[in-house]
Amino acid sequence: MRLPYVFAGLLAAMLAVGGPAQAADDFKPRLVRFGFGLVDDSNQGRAARLFAKEVEQATGGKMRVRAIGNASLGSDTQMQQALIGGAQEIMVGSTATLVGIVPEMAVWDTPFLFNTAEEADVVLDGPVGEKIKAKLEAKGMVGLVYWENGFRNLTNSKRPVEKLEDLGGVKLRVMQNNVFIDSFKTLGANAVPLPFSELFTALETRAVDGQENPFNTVLSSKFYEVQKYLTVSNHVYSPWIVTVSKKWWDTLSPAEQKVLKDAAIKSRDAERQDTRQEAVKALADLKAKGMQVNTLQPAEVDRMRERLASVNAGIAKSVGQETWNEVEAAVAQARAA
Ligand code: TF8
Questions:
Q1: pLDDT at 131
Q2: How far is CA 182 from the centre of its chain?
Q3: Is the ipTM of this complex over 0.90?
Q4: Residue 185 CB-density burial (10 A; 0-12 exposed, 13-18 middle, 19+ buried)
Q5: From CA 91, how far away is CA 48, in angstroms rounded?
Q6: Is the confidence at residue 15, as pLDDT, over 60?
Q7: What is the b/e burial string over 160-184, where b = at least 16 CB atoms within 10 angstroms of the residue's CB?
Q8: Is the CB of 75 under 6 A from ligand 1?
Q9: Nearest ligand 1 atom to alpha carbon 175
Q10: Helix/strand/coil for 155
Q11: pLDDT tens figures, 196-205
């Protein structure tokens, strides 16, 4: 007599738990470490936590993501090795530090490649961006999405940089790859490659005089405490990239992989918006903190571009002419749109 009610109740309970499309065993209990290099209170930190929240919600709390900042899990290059070895699950970091693993990533370090962040979005998310990202798989990592680090600007503790010659003899920390080293040597600086995690101390102890990063990072990493001069140069747009350990990825169910991909896209869109809004405010904040700011005049920017033509030729050679042409065509198309 009461049996039908029991069945109906059971059925309702089963539907409430998973729904017909999602079998309960699609999601296993997992603890995921998502590492990043900037402080918790940064665009990187905010987006990593958003990603974590999305994943937890989508898996009903089964997959728990810990966003771990401050390079506590290691510098970008150390985390990459941990991902390849399967000792860490996810990270976000600069594409520049991946050039030693996937040489084609060097295209994103091309000085003055993009004029606007919107152009960068179109090219990075389009076919050539996808193609370069896909090259990570053979090296032990799965690339999910590009986030925005942003347009880079110069800071230093020696003097205002108003013309090329002012860079002469400035010991400038650069990211660890040949494009950055060559670019700044060509511009006359004394380029010193260092991991980001060692940068604040290097600036504070005057082991180096300057560095270059977007306004957001100059603010969140408190570089204004140890750097007097800021030059608005916008000399290159830097992406970040969210990568996953391939070893770990291959243990996930298709449903779990989809959750990570979807959360990555949500985090990307939110991160880019956050970064762009913050950049405007950050410049004003840096002025208020006492940094002396100047903008590189168009004529000086042109001189820089001309000097850097040899660097571009070097990038085309190392990534292969075909890839270089694809990137150039994609930029031209994005610009015309
Ligand atoms: C740099 C980058 C940094 C990133 C970050 C630690 O200067 O711009 O933002 O590497 O992930 O190293």
A1: 98
A2: 21
A3: yes
A4: middle
A5: 9
A6: no
A7: ebeebebbeebbbbbbbbbbbbbbb
A8: no
A9: 12
A10: strand
A11: 999 999 999 9
- 73 CB less than 6 Å from ligand 1? no
Instruction: Tell me how crowded residue 297 is: count the other CB atoms within 10 A of its CB.
Output: 11
Q: Residues with Cβ < 8 Å from 249, sequence gap 6 or more?
A: 142, 257
Looking at CATH, the fold of the domain delimited by 26-336 is given as D-Maltodextrin-Binding Protein; domain 2 (3.40.190)
Comparing CA positions, the residue from 67, 75, 14 lying closest to residue 45 is: 67
For residues 110 and 286, what is the distance between their CA atoms, to the nearest angstrom?
27
**Rounded Cα gap, residues 201 and 183, in angstroms:** 24
| Order of strands across the sheet that contains 153-156 | 190-193, 171-174, 210-213, 153-156, 229-232, 292-295
Whether residue 186 contacts residue 125, with contact meaning beta carbons closer than 8 Å, is answered with no
- Spatial separation of the C-alpha atoms in residues 334 and 75, rounded to whole Å: 33
Residue 41 neighbours by CB distance under 10 Å: 11
Q: Please provide residue 93's backbone torsions phi and psi, each rounded to the nearest 5 degrees.
A: -165, -175
Ligand 1: which of 70, 90, 94, 151 to mutate, judged by most atoms within 8 Å of the beta carbon? 94
Model confidence pLDDT, tens digit, residues 26-53:
999 999 999 999 999 999 999 999 999 9
Flag whether pLDDT at 229 surpasses 60.
yes
Structure letter (DSSP) for residue 301: H
Q: Is 59 in the pocket of ligand 1 (CB under 6 A)?
A: no
CA 302 to CA 312: how far, in whole Å? 15
Tokens of 54: 């999305």
Contact 215, 153 (CB under 8 A): yes
Which residues are CB-neighbours of 164 under 8 A, at least 6 positions away?
187, 188, 300, 303, 304, 307
Query: What residues are paired with 94 via a beta bridge?
Result: 240
Q: What is the Cα–Cα distance from 166 to 189, expressed in whole angstroms?
A: 9
- What's the whole-number average pLDDT of the chain? 94
Q: What is the token pair recorded at 207?
A: 């082991």
Structure tokens at 244: 């996953």
